[in-house]
Predict the 3D structure of the following.
Amino acid sequence: MLLDWLLPTLLIAALALLAIGAIRRINLWRAGQPEAVKLIAGLMAMPRRYLVDLHHVVERDKVMSNTHVATAGGFVLSMLLIIPVYLFGLESRWLTIPLLIATAAMFTGAIFVYRRRRNPPARLSKGPWMRLPKNLLAFSGSFFLLTLLTSGLLPENFLGVWGGWVLTAILLVGIASGLSELLFGMGWGGPMKHAFAGALHLAFHRRPERFGGGRSTGLKPVNLDGALGVAEPKDFKWNQLLGFDACVQCGRCEAVCPAFAAGQPLNPKKLIQDMVVGLAGGTDANYAGSPYPGTEVGKAHGNPHQPIVDGLVNADTLWSCTTCRACVEECPMMIEHVDAIVDMRRHITLERGETPNKGAEVLDNLIATDNPGGYDPGSRMNWAADLDLPLMADKQEAEVLFWVSDGCFDMRSQRILRAFVSILKAANVDFAVLGNEECDSGDVARRLGDDATFQSLAKHNIATLSQYRFKRIVTTDPHAFHVINNEYGDFGGHYEVLHHSTFINELVEQGRIQLDRFKGGTVTYHDPCYLGRYNGEYESPRALLKALGIEVSEMERSGYRSRCCGGGGGAPITDIPGEHRIADMRVDDARQVDAETIAVACQQCTAMLEGVVEPRPEIRDLAELVADGLVVEAAEPGPAKTRPAVEEVH
Amino acid sequence: MWPDPNLKVATLVSVGQHPKSGRARRAEQDARAVELGLKMAGTRSRLVNVGAGDETGLRQYLGMGLPELMQVKAGTEADAVPALVEHLKTHPTDIVLTGIRAEQGEASGMVPYLLGEQLGWPVVSRIADIQKIEDGKADVLQALPRGQRRLLRVPLPFIATVDNAAPEARQYAYGPARRGQLAETNGTAIVDEARLEWQETPAKPRPKRLNVVKAKSAADRFKAATAKPQGQGGQVIRDGTDREKAEAIMELLISEGVVR
Ligand code: SF4
Ligand code: SF4
């Protein structure tokens, strides 16, 4: 019959087109910069990364995860069986029955995809993605029927001659449209591209440490003698380009992005799609998802050799990001948005000198005074003039090096620092500070794209630290914590670094401090991005609050899904306008759980949230809450002092 | 009309000093002068420095996007003026821009005047902008106290010092700063004998004379803060010979105790 020769032809054609498209696509990625990957090991690890790590993320949406398993698993299995059965004409029940099962599974999955697509949430892209479920149904349905008919499982002449022709025609249409979407489209940039690019992205991910439950959040070291940042799409590493191509436009990143919610001109999904436009060349006219707030879709154009800023993406988009990593945490394809954004910022700052708003001033201050405010570097210890803090320079050795951070110049942060000192003293911790020898950690400079200043600060600090002996570094600033813990290593600084919440919790567990019960009202806890998502510390702050007798009323977005306060990544410095302020939205989250106090663990969060107009919940750092609850051992009771009372005579 | 491809602008730059940390940097006023030069002649405007200035500081000027900085080597003890005169005589220049005074060292603010004297060029002090150039004359906007401006028409070539009222200098970037060339030439090195004998001590903040304003309303206070000081015993001498004018100034200086 007709299908006997037409079907293999169609299959060969589709497979050939897939191969050509795939090679073309691979060449597009190869326009990027070289980056060494483990080729074989990566490919071998890929199935596990898909089944375990990726599904760990996808599983946050249970229905979608099952849908995907059925559809994708069904598709892969059916393709593996279709080739021997219909291309090489092998006839065996051992092939046809599994094929029936596989296509049936895929069909079931496709029905769920279809149902979701009937009323898609705003975060999903429309356009070509709307036809995908139909083609999934066509592909699985046609091959199921065809296999059923040719498998000999049905009686001879089941349909009669005419019925046979009609069915053949229908099947042909179904097979043709299914094959063109699933094979042709996979190689040529259709929605199914995600399967091909996604699989390879898992194999050659730039941060393989993320798989198997690991974490990798520090920015990659930059060679300052080489190219500075990404100017054109071809300046990305090849596997970053590959990563962009893996995007399924699910919009999960968009849904969690604080800048997007605030109406600032950033949408991480659109940004990744613009990078795809850049790597493949063309315009964003076919993009069918939410735009950058306030920016029209269809005007952007680019190609691998055209500067990204000017044409493809507005600089404001890049500067809106708070580097909160919510998008990265949520992305099922493990795409690294923050790396890409900082790469592009680096070019703007280091090559163009166009860091917006206060950016230039802050960087200039960091270069000239080692602190972002431009204060006299000799006045770092003024905040502690009355505290008599031991200096490393005098002691040379201490158990704990207390990293004070630039909070020392800010009056609000000083209250947190002083609270922490009182805890250290109450627990008799052997500690010391660097005093005027300390410099800014380099966090802000690096997030603003100035890796030159970051490196000079980091190297300076590492050299200072190397002069002294200490067991661990403790800091109240999650940004300094992250940078020293995760980014100084590339420059030779390896330390045990603790955030003060972890450290204080340890003191409580060891019984070195006693705490009274907290007597305020409802308390909620705001996870700082640089403590939680960047460093995985969600437990200690909560344990500490529990030790204070507080039962935390969790906000809807907490833990790894915590919403940023708006203070990271230099966002308050570049200050890109939006419709709302991120900090206001965060305080609204707290109001929803009727919190009277928001416990925070970061001076930047404190500053941002306290900047929200009253009435609002009170903002207290963990150190302050603990310091208030310290039970100080009663000193030797001296003789009771009695004073002559003053009487009122009339 | 800007940048003007035929205009030859040279900006004299010195190494500055951060007021808080004392670190070498681009000097603020000089950087504003460079910014003005960039506006007028684009990246073709020249940067000139005399001495053995600190490289980090000088490179910050290159970081503003200029390809080259000419460093006239004359040694730390040399007087900058003869070296600059020689440089300006051998390199055709229409406009020389510089800050009002250096941020370290002598910082007398005399260099532009001495140059003007030796080259015979007019000197315009404290400018905020140069608006246009026509028929060999430039429309120069001079900054006066309290935000006032005066438009001057100055024949080329001339020397101008740039006031803090001029547009702020752009950010300097690491990439161009690293790539920019520090071109060295040897200049006339005449040792500044007088200066060798000086002693340097850190400056003490000068006490400020308080201006007591007896204002009753906000409007009065605003006026007091912005209005041109009226009279106050001053005197504008328009007529008379130069000698008479000079004598009037001398008299004032003696009465104020500046000259004894
Ligand atoms: S970047 Fe990731 S989370 Fe965002 S739309 Fe693409 S696949 Fe989804
Ligand atoms: S890091 Fe945060 S602010 Fe930046 S794009 Fe991702 S979600 Fe948005």
The pocket of iron/sulfur cluster (ligand 2) is lined by residues A 256-259, 266, 268, 321-327, 337-338, 564 (CB under 6 Å). Chain B has eight helices and eleven strands.
